[in-house]
Design goal:
Radius of gyration: 23 Å
Strand order of the largest sheet: 1-7-6-5-4-2-3
Number of helices: 13
Strand content: 15-25%
Helix content: 25-40%
Order of helices and strands: HHHEHEHEHEHEEEHHHEHEHEEEH
Largest sheet: 7 strands, mixed
Number of strands: 12
Distance between the termini: 83 Å
Shape: globular
Structural class: alpha/beta
Amino acid sequence: MTRTATGLIHHPYTPPDSFAAPQPGVFKASTVFFKDVAAMRARDWRSKAGYTYGLHGTPTTFLLEERLATLEGGTACLLVPSGLAAISLVSLALLKRGDEVLIPDNAYGPNKALATGELANFGITHRLYDAMDPADLAGKLSERTRLVWLEAPGSVTMEFPDLPALVAACRARGVTTALDNTWGAGLAFDPFALGADVSVHALTKYPSGGGDVLMGSVVTRDDALHLKLKLTHMRLGFGVGANDVESLLRSLPSLPLRYAAHDRAARELARWLEGREEIAQVLHPALEDSPGHAHWRALCGERGLAAGLFSVVFDERFGTEAVDGFCDSLALFRLGYSWGGPVSLVVPYDIGLMRDAGVSRWPHKGTLVRFSIGLEDVDDLRADLAQALARMA
C-alpha cells in the first residue's frame, strides 16, 4: 500500500483529454516527463514535435508563439522576457567581433545604448543613420555591415520612414534587416511583405494591453535564420512565465478592437491639438503635415491603421518648466513610460539629448511631449488637455 506522501505525488488518476473551453490551459513546468529512455534520447528541443524542458517550451508557450507568428505574417516565433530582450537576442545572435550594425538615429534609445555598451565591449561597432534618408543608409553600408535595424515610426519623434527603400538598400548588399514592429503590432502593415528578415515586438504594449506584462517576441520566415536565433536563445537561457503567457493569450483576441480604438481616439485628439495655438507641431503619421506621412499612407493606407501614439512640439515661448507644469497638471493622463494599455500616458522629452545632430537634424526648438492614448472617453481626455493648456496661459 502506498503511503500518503507518495500517493499524493504519484496518484494514478489522469483527467480525460477532451476538455475544451474558450481559454487554453496553462502548463507550468521546468521538468518534463518522458515515457522511457528511448523517448528522452529521441526528443529534440529545437523541434515543436515534443517537449524536453520547460525553458524550451510547453503547450502554453508554443501556442502563443504560433499565434504571434501568424499575427506578424511569419512562420516561427521566439518568446523573450521583454521587448529590449528581443532586440538584444537578434543583435547577439547575428553579430560577432569585427561586425558592424546600423541603427536609425531616431530609434528606441535602449537599442542604441546596447550598441554603445555590450556590443562595443564584444568588438562590434555601430553607426547611426538618418531613417528619413535612404541614401544616407545606403552610403553607410560597408563590407562589415551585418545587420540594419529599422523602426517605424521613429521612437518618440514619430517620423515615418520609407521602409521599402531602406529594405531595398540592404537587400542589394545582402545585409540582414530587423524591424522593431511594436508600433505596427502586426496590424498596421506586414513586415515580411516589405522584405524585412526579422520582426521584433514588445508584447508589453498592445498585445498585452493591460500595462502589467513584460514580454517580447522575435518572428522570422526563414528556417535557417530562426534556428540561428533559437540557438542563441537557448544559450542565453531566455524564458517567460506561464502566467504572463496566459495573460497574452487572453488579450490577443481583442487586440484588433483595442488597437482600432486607440487609433481613433489618438487621431481625434491629435487633430484637435493641431488647432491649439500653444502647439507648434503635431507628430502623428496619419496627419498630412507630419514627417513621413506619404510613406505611412503608401505602406499602411490600405489597412488605414496608425496606433494610439503621437507627440507634440510646444511653441518655443513655453520653456521646459512650463511644459513640465502642463504635464503635472493633467489629471487623466498619467506620467509613465511604455504605451498600449488602458490608461493614457504622457512623457516630456529632451530630444537634443537623444539625437546626433551630425546624423539627423531635429528642426524644432520647442519642447516635445509624447502621448499614449488609452481607452478612456475621448471627450474626457480632451477636457483634461484643455484645462492643462489653460493653466499654461
